[in-house]
Amino acid sequence: MIRRRPPLALLLPALLTVAGVLLPLIYLLIRALGAESSELREIVFRARNINLLGNTLLLTVSTLVTTTLVALPLAYLAARTDLQPRRALMLTGVLPLAIPGYVGAYAMIAASGPGGTIDALTGITWPGPTGFWGALGILTLFTFPYLFLNLHAALRTQDPALEDAARLLGRTPAQTFRDVTLPYLRPAWLSGALLIALHVLGDFSVVSLMRYPTFSAAIYQQYTAAYDRVYAAWLALGLLLVTGATLLLEARLMRGLHLARVSPGGARELRTVHLGRARPLAWAFVAALTGAALIVPLGTIGYWLRLETNPFAWASLAEALKSALGAATIAAVTTTALAFPLAYIGSRAQGRLARFTERAAYLGYATPPLAFALALVFFSLRVAPPLYQTFPLLILAYTLHFVAEAVGPIRTGLSTATPRLEEAARLLGQTSRGALTRVTLPLIRPSLLISAAFVFLSVLKELPLTLLLAPIGFETLARNVWAYTEEAQYAAAAPYALALALSGAALTLLILRRERRPAPRPTRPTKEQA
Fold it and tell me: Where in the numbering of this chain does the ABC transmembrane type-1 domain appear (predicted)?
């Protein structure tokens, strides 16, 4: 049952979501163009803009290279080789995602230099991360899981007949990997690389702590320190242009990719690669990665945690944790509620309006958080000043920014809940709303929970939106980690960093566990159920 027109009850909230995403960005453009012509020329043609663009692109491209060099070998080891236990390899590839970049930066800074964790425990003064190389290292360690998950899934589902055919034609294992496996991984790599590129383009916390100037760092500096909001708006527009170019490049590279098999054939198991003498080298790689991405950050947090003896810090931690969990819970519910109409329209409806509605909502997620927050600041001050720096505006920002993140799992669930079940319910006397609430929603309940968990985790770690839009006195875990790290108060930041890392790890493991469960098998509703 594919509808040509989306139902009005779902179309209205979907259009409101799209309006909420687009209007602040449109006003950001108006604000940027509202300056005098002489001021505009001076702003647009500043030499600093070229430097910021070069730094931003260099860091983005370099991070894509380094994350590939980390994620691809680890994914291959976990998916294709006899290296055991595989659960440990999966945890190494996934758990760094639970540690926000600014927490990783805090841990690396606190571990290095005179008086750092490494110096205190070993007497060795390890040089502190800084500049381009520091930002590159930290972003690599805590964003490579985006690529690992995509590559691992692709390697596990590749048809082994492709590699077998290449070997029968005389190709060596290395040639087979280069000519057959790598091209097959291209869609998975592009999907993960897009997420990493968007993350790097929107990051300001890591680059600020590393003292590496990029567009995002300059936006935050201009808005909070220099109070030059016109220049900040132009920087945000420049960042949006870079992001848009990245999205267009990814779409162009994905165009024309058709890797599906013509005939499904019989299911065959993937051949396990025996490492042999390469096993110690593989374990050395995994151990080094685990140490850098997990042991050093968590060990550093634990070291500084025992130095925090102020009793008021723990009371403040409880208050910040309560605020963070409360905001994340509300945002998860509102975002999932708005994501369902978008996912339903995208999977069940046809036509330009349906395509526009779904794709426009993704603009909020593709927009770097700092630029999106700045747009909401300008828009709220102009249209509804009492809304500025209030809790509802913060929840609205979380919802509009992360709604696209929640659409994916719901749409996947809708793809397994065949429309014929709704059709059957209608034939048994149910209205469209009754069929939706009694048949479809129960079937996709696991997908709704996964979407809510994704948003909950993202909101818990979110920093730029919180810094610019949170009410005065509203403390969260992310905000306090950032504030104390900026002041080099590593012991004071440790409780908040640990709470963030543990919360993120618990949610990440929960999401992975639910995603491994088989989807419920759809059943035809009886007359009583319908």
Answer: 53-252, 321-511
